[in-house]
TrEMBL record:
<dbReference type="GO" id="GO:0005829">
    <property type="term" value="C:cytosol"/>
</dbReference>
<feature type="region of interest" description="Disordered">
    <location>
        <begin position="271"/>
        <end position="293"/>
    </location>
</feature>
<dbReference type="GO" id="GO:0005158">
    <property type="term" value="F:insulin receptor binding"/>
</dbReference>
<keyword id="KW-0832">Ubl conjugation</keyword>
<feature type="region of interest" description="Disordered">
    <location>
        <begin position="1"/>
        <end position="24"/>
    </location>
</feature>
<dbReference type="InterPro" id="IPR002404">
    <property type="entry name" value="IRS_PTB"/>
</dbReference>
<dbReference type="InterPro" id="IPR011993">
    <property type="entry name" value="PH-like_dom_sf"/>
</dbReference>
<dbReference type="Pfam" id="PF02174">
    <property type="entry name" value="IRS"/>
</dbReference>
<comment type="subunit">
    <text>Interacts with PHIP. Interacts with SH2B1; this interaction enhances leptin-induced activation of the PI3-kinase pathway. Interacts with GRB2. Interacts with PIK3R1. Interacts with DVL2; this interaction promotes the Wnt/beta-catenin signaling pathway.</text>
</comment>
<feature type="domain" description="PH">
    <location>
        <begin position="23"/>
        <end position="128"/>
    </location>
</feature>
<feature type="domain" description="IRS-type PTB">
    <location>
        <begin position="166"/>
        <end position="270"/>
    </location>
</feature>
<dbReference type="GO" id="GO:0035591">
    <property type="term" value="F:signaling adaptor activity"/>
</dbReference>
<keyword id="KW-0597">Phosphoprotein</keyword>
<feature type="compositionally biased region" description="Low complexity">
    <location>
        <begin position="281"/>
        <end position="293"/>
    </location>
</feature>
<dbReference type="InterPro" id="IPR001849">
    <property type="entry name" value="PH_domain"/>
</dbReference>
<keyword id="KW-0488">Methylation</keyword>
<protein>
    <recommendedName>
        <fullName>Insulin receptor substrate 2</fullName>
    </recommendedName>
</protein>
Length: 293
């Protein structure tokens, strides 16, 4: 009896006898974010396709070229190279799926929310499977309070694949202004948000150039496509402001709202956790409006 096709796999002749379809978890047409070109995307599990390999996302010029095996895919992105996979939106596209590796940012646009969710879940489930098979210690946490009690990084409600290195990642351009100029933090970076910190990772690097504690952020805001944070004396950079530019105003607003949500959640978790008198004094000081440096 022939096995059923994977979800999202279009029917066709000799589907189960075609080696090109082995390991396919999902496939279909999506648009590339940059130019809006429609391409046929194929999501494969480990060992799928003509050549063995890890889980990956491929795309072809058309479904016909994929079915007829007319040449290699136009592009292949290995999922184990991804820092983060997320749903995104910008001024032109409402339903993006974004993949961030250490050296590039790649995004595709779905037609609607249901299609976006289907691809996002397929990608993140496959990424989680790969990390679990490799013995990754990352796993979903039942609640932020359980995580805090166990001394682990809390999940503050953002929808995130368990295997992701960061809760959220955005590509930004740090400007030569304030700390950007004095600390030589300029150019294209990944703004990486975890439960307690934000880090700025240069392209083609794996470790952040600088990591800042969320509790050291005095304020943050956005204007048009720009986002800024102000940190106090306790920050690794010392006091000052960091200015950065996102793709557009929609992305800048998303960065602002998400980091504010993370700061609020961390504050609430910190207040929930039993503390010593000295720790309580520190938390109370953070909760008050900070004094000017």
């Amino acid at each position: 009896m022939a096995s059923p096709a994977a979800p999202g796999l279009p029917p066709g002749p000799n589907l189960n006898n075609n080696n090109n379809n082995r390991g396919v978890r999902k496939c279909g047409y999506l648009r590339k974010q940059k130019h809006g070109h429609k391409r046929f995307f194929v999501l494969r599990g480990p060992g799928g396709g003509e050549e063995a390999g890890g889980a990956r996302l491929e795309y072809y010029e058309s479904e016909k070229k994929w079915r007829n095996k007319s040449g290699a895919p136009k592009r292949v992105i290995a999922l184990d190279s991804c820092l983060n996979i997320n749903k995104r939106a910008d001024a032109k596209h409402k339903y993006l799926i974004a993949l961030y590796t250490k050296d590039e940012y790649f995004a595709v646009a779905a037609e609607n929310e249901q299609e976006q969710e289907g691809w996002y879940r397929a990608l993140t489930d496959l990424l989680s499977e790969g990390k679990a098979a490799a013995g990754s210690p990352h796993r979903p946490l039942p609640s932020p309070f359980a995580a805090l009690a166990a001394g682990e990084e809390p999940d503050y409600g953002l929808v995130t694949p368990a295997a992701a290195a960061y809760r959220e990642v955005w590509q930004v351009t740090l400007k030569p202004k304030g700390l950007g100029q004095s600390k030589n933090l300029t150019g294209v970076h990944r703004l990486c948000l975890s439960a307690r910190t934000i880090g700025f990772v240069r392209l083609n690097c794996e470790l952040p150039s600088v990591t800042l504690q969320l509790m050291n952020i005095r304020r943050c805001g956005h204007s048009d496509s720009f986002f800024f944070i102000e940190v106090g004396r306790s920050a690794a950079t010392g006091p000052g402001e960091l200015w950065m530019q996102a793709d557009d105003s929609v992305v800048a607003q998303n960065i602002h709202e998400t980091i504010l949500e993370a700061m609020k959640a961390l504050k609430e978790l910190s207040e929930f956790r039993p503390r010593s008198k000295s720790q309580s004094a520190t938390a109370a000081g953070w909760a008050r409006p900070p004094a000017a440096p």
